[in-house]
Amino acid sequence: MAGLPLYDAVVPTLIKGLTTFDHVLTKAEEYAKENNKDVNEFTQARLVEDQLPFAFQVQNASKAAQVAIGRLTGTEPAFFENTEKTFEDLHKRIQKTLEELKAVDPAVVNSRAGEQVDLLIPWAGTTQKVPVGQAVLTHNFPNFYFHLTTGYSILRAKGVPLGKRDFLESFLGF
């Protein structure tokens, strides 16, 4: 990854991940229609009882992208309210986040690659100063992928016919 500009490593990857999330939502809608189900029941679906629901997974993937944008641009994220109740709402949230990502200026991101930002370590109750690139790649990406993978897994566990291709296709550009 040496020589890869920070913008190129981060922003297109987040865009592809949110495109994947939008795709799995569409697959869930198709599945629900084919099986005479209300797709919006999936918004509160979970893998286990003490897990947060599917809608939360979409909201927090979006939030991880917004935090990354803030770190990459040196701006304070303007977080969306977590008010989504339907799949239509979730699609709209993904689209708003994609619009924010597409508006990020590559020159700004690349100029900030080595700048220090605060990285909260919640379980330790501390904050560390780390370079922007490290914060995004070691905090935002794992958090983003956690919620993307969990959302995908919830829908798959509920019967939506999702496969590895559905997860990887937008990352590979096919």
**Highest CATH level, the class:** Mainly Alpha
Tell how many strands the DSSP assignment holds.
2
CATH H-level name... which superfamily? dinb family like domain
Number of helices: 6
- Estimate what percentage of residues fall within beta strands: 5-15%
Shape type: globular
**Strand arrangement, major sheet:** 1-2
The major beta sheet can be summarized as: 2 strands, antiparallel
The ordered string of helix (H) and strand (E) elements is HHHHEEHH
CATH architecture term: Up-down Bundle
Span of the ends, CA to CA = 22 Å
Portion of residues within helices: 55-70%
Uncertain regions: pLDDT < 50 for 5+ in a row? none
Average pLDDT confidence is 94
CATH topology: Four Helix Bundle (Hemerythrin (Met), subunit A)
Number of domains: 1
Structural class of the helix and strand makeup? mainly alpha
